[in-house]
Amino acid sequence: MRLHRIALGAVVASTLALTGCGATKDNATTDSSAGSGGAAKPATGLQYMVPNAPGGGYDTTARAAAQVMEKEGITGPVQVFNLPGAGGTVGLQRVVNEEGNGQLAMQMGLGVLGAAYTQKSKASLNETTPIAKLIEEAGAIVVPKDSPYTDINQLVEAWKKDPKSLSVGGGSSPGGPDHLLPMQLAQTVGIDPKTVSYVSYDGGGELLPALLGN
């Protein structure tokens, strides 16, 4: 599971202002003041897609970013919506299908990149245009509250004794960050990554209830 550090300060807001208005060419201001140092009009009609279930990192980030854009006057009201499926590639396919639609943006990260690769998605990220980097995130390993493991050393020792006895859940498809983190840890402590029992969930919104429910 990943802990997301949302850093949506003035620098990020400025980045979105420059790129967001450029992306919504149909709503770009035609006011002559824009070309003479005047303030540009807010972009309107923006749709912001989250390509997995509500409650996960992409969802939280998109809704926080939408609030900042609205508050800073970069955009008018932003419609944030979820289109889950296939590790984010269903949403990716829609973005590609709507080529030329400057009012549609998608929140994504390495999870979508990994899913596109491992699932051999027909839609490619090369067919999209990156707009802004919003966050950096730290990887975290968590267990249920009543787990017998209270620190990483206990967990690793039990894992090394019987790698298949512990399931590792992640909110991304194989190839995404939630998959790569435990595989890198396994390799570091001497466990063959091929023996790790990895369970993929469609985002943190689905992963969290499974974790809390043991």
Task: Describe what this molecule looks like in 3D.
There is one protein chain. The protein is α/β, with parallel strands linked by helices. Helix content is 37%, strand content 14%. It has 7 helices and 7 strands. It has helices at residues 10-23, 57-71, 89-97, 110-118, 152-161, 177-189, 204-212; strands at 2-6, 47-50, 79-82, 104-106, 135-139, 167-170, 197-200. A 3-stranded parallel beta sheet has the order 3-2-4, with helices on both faces. It has a two-stranded antiparallel ribbon with strand order 1-5. A two-stranded parallel sheet has the order 6-7. β6 (167-170), α6 and β7 form a beta-alpha-beta unit. The protein starts with a strand and ends with a helix. 29% of the residues are buried. Mean pLDDT is 82; it is low at 1-36.
SSE layout:
Blueprint: E1 2-6, H1 10-23, E2 47-50, H2 57-71, E3 79-82, H3 89-97, E4 104-106, H4 110-118, E5 135-139, H5 152-161, E6 167-170, H6 177-189, E7 197-200, H7 204-212
Parallel strand pairs: 2-3, 2-4, 6-7
Antiparallel strand pairs: 1-5
Instruction: Indicate the radius of gyration in whole angstroms.
Output: 20 Å
Q: CA-to-CA gap between the ends?
A: 14 Å
Q: What number is the mean pLDDT?
A: 82
Helical fraction equals 25-40%
Question: What structural category characterises the helix and strand content?
Answer: alpha/beta
User: Biggest β-sheet: count, sense, barrel?
Assistant: 3 strands, parallel
Low-confidence stretches: 1-36
What is the total tally of β strands?
7
Continuous helix count: 7
Strand order of the largest sheet: 3-2-4
Morphology call: elongated
Q: What sequence of helices (H) and strands (E) makes up the elements?
A: EHEHEHEHEHEHEH
- Classify the beta-strand content into a percent band: 5-15%
